[in-house]
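Dear colleague,

Following up on Tuesday's group meeting, I ran the structure prediction for the three-component complex that the binding team flagged. I've pasted the input sequences exactly as they went in, so you can double-check that nothing got truncated or mislabelled along the way. The structure tokens for the whole assembly follow below. Feel free to forward this to whoever is handling the docking comparison.

Inputs:
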Amino acid sequence: MSDASAPHAWCEATPALGEPMLALVRRLFPICRSITGNGVRETLRIVGEVVPLTMHEVASGTRVLDWTIPKEWNIRDGYIADARGNRVVDFRANNLHVVGYSTPVRARMPLDQLQSHLYSLPEQPDLIPYRTSYYEQRWGFCLSHRQRLALAPGDYDVVIDSTLTDGGLSYGECVLRGTSDEEVLFYTHTCHPSLANDNLSGIVVCAYLARLLGSVEHRYTYRFVFGPGTIGSLAWLSRHQEHLPKIRHGLVAVLLGDRAGLRYKQSRQGDHVIDRVVARVLRQTGRPHTIEPFSPYGYDERQFGSPGFNLPVGRLSRSAEEGYPEYHTSADTPVMIAAEALSESLRACVEVCATLESDACYVNTRPFGEPQLGRYGLYRKAGGDALPDRERALLWVLNYSDGDHSLIDIAERSGLTMRAVCGAADDLVAAGLLVPRS
Amino acid sequence: MSDASAPHAWCEATPALGEPMLALVRRLFPICRSITGNGVRETLRIVGEVVPLTMHEVASGTRVLDWTIPKEWNIRDGYIADARGNRVVDFRANNLHVVGYSTPVRARMPLDQLQSHLYSLPEQPDLIPYRTSYYEQRWGFCLSHRQRLALAPGDYDVVIDSTLTDGGLSYGECVLRGTSDEEVLFYTHTCHPSLANDNLSGIVVCAYLARLLGSVEHRYTYRFVFGPGTIGSLAWLSRHQEHLPKIRHGLVAVLLGDRAGLRYKQSRQGDHVIDRVVARVLRQTGRPHTIEPFSPYGYDERQFGSPGFNLPVGRLSRSAEEGYPEYHTSADTPVMIAAEALSESLRACVEVCATLESDACYVNTRPFGEPQLGRYGLYRKAGGDALPDRERALLWVLNYSDGDHSLIDIAERSGLTMRAVCGAADDLVAAGLLVPRS
Amino acid sequence: MSDASAPHAWCEATPALGEPMLALVRRLFPICRSITGNGVRETLRIVGEVVPLTMHEVASGTRVLDWTIPKEWNIRDGYIADARGNRVVDFRANNLHVVGYSTPVRARMPLDQLQSHLYSLPEQPDLIPYRTSYYEQRWGFCLSHRQRLALAPGDYDVVIDSTLTDGGLSYGECVLRGTSDEEVLFYTHTCHPSLANDNLSGIVVCAYLARLLGSVEHRYTYRFVFGPGTIGSLAWLSRHQEHLPKIRHGLVAVLLGDRAGLRYKQSRQGDHVIDRVVARVLRQTGRPHTIEPFSPYGYDERQFGSPGFNLPVGRLSRSAEEGYPEYHTSADTPVMIAAEALSESLRACVEVCATLESDACYVNTRPFGEPQLGRYGLYRKAGGDALPDRERALLWVLNYSDGDHSLIDIAERSGLTMRAVCGAADDLVAAGLLVPRS
């Protein structure tokens, strides 16, 4: 592996990418996305400008595991107008105003009757909530509680110009082949309309991570899936059941732009290599972070971590779902997102990949006593000095390369950086003192 | 199982039972009990008014494991009288005054000679100690240290009108058959004379627990044994060796009436289901409590937990043995006992039984991804809302019903109440999404 | 085992041995030792006055594992003299002045040229460093940084009157045969010149420990090896490969004279009996101490703990290597050593041996319920009393003598002293209630 592409050098590009990622969040923000429809396709097309995506469509009506792909939903307009024809609630002002997957409607009705179709947040009276009804045919409007209270009694015109038609669920995939067909999977959901942290942040971090990995050599094959939440990962899992044994590690990468510290939710297995690697990467940032055990709710980790699949897929985010006041409201705009947060998130992902890339298991060829490192040019000249860090790394790698411990294990046990451990392993391999475990 | 008999509804009866239990303590208090004799029979007869007991007798001289059932001891009277015939120490005033199992005596002797037969507590000069000599033929008197110091030199008449005859060791048993022949065992000792907390409290809690369980449907067979300490459990174990494999869980239930927090001593195995269930029940009381590891002394848990039997039997008490100043003295009277303490102890026992009853191991019939709960009527209507607790419980139960985790495991892992987890399991079974593990 | 030689009585001799050990440190201090040569032989000869040593020589050129025994080094004189013939650096004043294994030299050179052969400590300007060059042919002088700065420009006469000849590596061994051929190994390094704590302290503690053990009966065979660091343990391991399975426990005993608290470095296995025993002994001192995990550097524990050997050998010291400012400098003199520290270190070693000696695994012959201790004369007479400690120990030993737990396990679990547990076991064996596990 050439020095330029050495895994731990990959991180240097990340600080400069905060601003481009934030610009991409702003560009994608206005688009009305859902679990199906043209908004998703447009989003994937734009992401495809950053990194080549293969587009996939799963037809409405297709059975995926216990679920069925629903009809495709598209919307042109939606509003509530008062008697004078003023749009008092308007989809064109904010696409959160229409409940996702609302059936078409064109009617006049008194406020009393309309109320059962309205959603607002009394506790956060200035914010529009985000609501959907994918699998139950309904229509509705979301509005701020102040708006709602201001609605005068009387008749209103209600229009939702939407369609529910046989179409397809769209997802995009970027596969970066490595020298091995063992895979690292990244999944990020694409189904939320104008919500920035949830989850344009995850989309842009995955896009730029894929772009970065596409520019360097790597051992693992990396697969990035940009698809809707729940039904998207179910569709993907359903179509890739034969393929799943190749997935060695995975991350659901979402909510990566806000100012909270990084947060890792462990895979269902809890002590898988991905769990240890992410914990290590977060610890090495030296910044506050959180590690939480698996739970069967949240985002798509719940599908990858269902008992039948039980894949080693954790979740990296900053805030958790329901974890910040702007969550699932009109306040989740690009203002919530910091370029530095995006680049720090990206860097953590890169470090995770670099650590996975550089992990390996070796066997010491001189396991009885220490080899005489000086004979191999690996020892300081004068005895009696303090032990240099480099030599310390050599000794750790030699001692624990007993066939049971990988370089990650050795880094954990020794407290050394992965970079130091990998450097020592390279030197020992070159000296013939270490061979890869067959 | 009908709703009325649902395990977690059983607890509602307990608060009202505090006063009746305390009344029973007061009624049993004056009786002179020992490891054998008519006082025990009378005690069991009265307990039999609360819950039907089968009486058992093991004849004196019967070999039980490494021990032999001793002769039966009964006592009519006992006193020390001074030269003027005044009873200065009188069994009729307090049955603790005569050392348990004292051989008969009728003699006159000077104080000097009498002293070697007297027991008192210099550190607690107002209290009469409790002493016995079951396996060594002796006689003696217990008295307060002040009484002892007040004894004037001179001759005393010493009378103990007791008998040691071939008879039997008595214990009572209440077996409540469930739908399964797997058993939960409760053992409480009956051998202490006028001591209230040790152990009339345990006797009344077991009696009322049996009465409560007798009024509801249950899966486990519950067996309550009211017998003397050590020799009683040894006799029972000796006679039930073939039966022991049916015992799935057990508790020695003693010292349950004082005002200390509940205290659980783990079974010898330490991590058995009973240990986890009691810990969970105590935690959920939200009140201070103690959990301690097994030790091979204390009460009858030491026999159930001897290495040859090694049964999953823990011990529930409030204070520990030797754990309160009134322990084994004349101050352990019904004044020490609080009705609320008895009912809280009873409630903890009921909760333990309810938790054991409701535990089960299921298998998810749709383990690949989440089932579409909405199709089964198990999902909230509008997406985007915060996750309701009920749905959270459904997801936990689905995800961990992989054949390796019981409902108790799932409750522990999720932090949900057993009630929530069981409710979710019931709903999922009804929907066909869960089946009992075969 | 007679009472006089009971393991736990061995400790009584240790306090009186602090001063004799310190006197021996002072006597050995002036000798110029290295990994080979006459200084080591003289040191071993003097140690042989305390305890009989068998001397071994491994010839120069002998292959030992990945290493080769170097030529033997001896030195008569060495100095740097100024133009007026004044010795400004003089081996005779302090043997640290000459780099260990310096090749002979006799030359005149200007200060500029001499500088590359000089070693000093700018941060500790008054101290002479300790340096060696065993496997690279060089010569050099160590001096205080103040001395170095005071050297005037100009020519200097440089003389090292050393020899590097075919000879041998010397080590001494003391083997104390026990009733079993299972061994406890002690290793201490002998290769440092005038450094007191590192490691005359280890040498004298091992010598006096061997002397003490030689005067009592014991079960284990104890083997003490006094040899040079690294190449010495490698040579010993290389020659004893067939023998290694007999080594049940081991300690590298070094740096045992300074005033820091005792410090234990675990064996590579980390949870071996030796690790638990030393931790227990240190805990029972009631004094501050440190326990650290294995790491593959330090002293000879790194050879015993190399992955091919993986022997259960920990390390007992006070300070760690590099752990005190005087480490590897001319300030590591007998002034650093406290007689009380030496005797406390010796006592800890004795306690470790005593604990290992007294450990055993027994089986309860009456495992079903408790045996009736009173029948065996092992029970207090009157029931009702508080449980005496002696009886508590009997119950712990009976309950856990199930074939899976040794006396050390029982001591750990019960919190009782090893002395109490062993005493109980002795009583139970005498009563026929316990038999050694076959």
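Chain A touches chain B at residues 65-68, 99-100, 119, 129-136, 138, 140, 230, 233-234, 237-238, 241, 268, 295-297, 302-303, 305-310, 322, 328 (CB under 8 Å).

Cheers,
M.
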